[in-house]
Amino acid sequence: MNNEHTTAINGAGNPTYKDIVAIALAHGITDHDRIVTEVFNAVEKWKEVAKNYRVTKSTIKKISDTLDVIAQRIYIKN
Q1: Which end of the chain is more exposed for a tag (fewer CB within 10 A), N or C?
Q2: Residue-level pLDDT, tens digit, the chain, 78 residues
Q3: CA–CA distance, 50 with 52 (Å, rounded to integer)
Q4: Residues contacting residue 40 through CB under 8 Å, at least 6 positions apart
Q5: Which domain holds residue 44?
Q6: Is there a contact between 24 and 32 (Cβ–Cβ < 8 Å)?
Q7: Cβ–Cβ < 8 Å for 17, 78
Q8: Cα angle 59-63-65, degrees, rounded to a multiple of 5
Q9: Is residue 11 part of a domain?
């Protein structure tokens, strides 16, 4: 795994929105759209928090780029 942490959702190492919905519905969670939106809204604020904790610009960019990839895979409903 190249020293990287991964989390599988619905058996997918790179989960999509459909994987999140499948798990939510399997557990009786019907407001999954609201929950996913709340999580993404919270994660969008991380740059401000990172700056407040003096995280370097290069680290902020690296994390931001990774979060953008995840957002495209999950939040863009496919």
Answers
A1: N
A2: 455 566 778 887 788 889 999 999 999 999 999 998 899 889 889 899 999 999 999 999 999 998 888 888 887 654
A3: 5
A4: 71, 75
A5: 31-74
A6: yes
A7: yes
A8: 115
A9: no
